[in-house]
Amino acid sequence: MTSTDQQPFLSVKDLRVHFSTEDGIVKAVDGLSFDLAKGRTLGIVGESGSGKSVTNLTILGLHDRRSTAIEGEIVLDGKDLLTASERELERLRGNKMSMIFQDALASLSPYHTVGRQIGETYRKHTGASKKEARDRAVEMLRRVGIPQPDVRVDDYPHQFSGGMRQRAMIAMALVCDPELLIADEPTTALDVTVQAQIMDLLKDLQQEFGTAIIFITHDLGVIADIADDVLVMYGGRCVERGTKEEVLRDPQHPYTLGLMSSMPSLDGPVDVPLSPIPGSPPSLLNPPSGCRFHPRCAFAEQVPGGRCATERPLLEVVDGRGSACHLTPAQRRELFADYAGTRHN
Fold it and tell me: Pfam family of this protein, just one (predicted)?
């Protein structure tokens, strides 16, 4: 997902994250690879349980190694994160890489002021004094659009609105100018107006600092607004990837097509019925054999020999574009066009 002449800032190769539970092994991420360059935004999209958040918690080193088996490679600016010590990861978290969580109210401590929580992150990584940290917190609150930041810096999270709390979370994540920012569905609980403001804020800050961003969401509309590149996950695996324009204009995997067909269109006919994907996401304790999407796929019977149920399709990537599907390109063109046609008739 990066140009051939640009070294990726973040490189993930064949990542596997398996959890040990009383019921068995959960294969949360099962062979995931992608690259991300500075100044680019990678949108990771998929239903709940697809492995999106697990991937990014693994990048940050936030899993309990006693119950988690992690294989593969995660390299951030030349540093292998999977072999790094906990002390090294603590130096990187909040400094070189940072994360915005989905629920700001649950992520912020109710017992400390917003300014103190932002300032403590800054003090930990820079050794700044309390006054310097408070001044920095005021500066960051101003940068993310909080009115009267020199006053609101002493407020507690419950005194902020939902949108303001999310802005405060962004300020905390950006206080040390991280080079990698992971945003885990940061706008899900916000109304559309505030959501648009947060998205614009992230884009402005990225343009200012050249930050690499991973944006996790289940909403393709959000992806269309903020992402440069898109990675579609299902059942712990990547099923499709490409630029935003490639994936949204010409989906190559039935799951991506299903996600798009289950969303209303703002520029199409208003009477087009939505087509939700039948069934439920797979259990990662006992995932389906072959293609994990095949029990829900409208086109699995079109592949001869029942390969979808028995043989895992490979993700073949050419110039950053690829999909993991047994359908031939000719079959996809015909079947996907027919599928889209039935929605407009």
Answer: ABC_tran
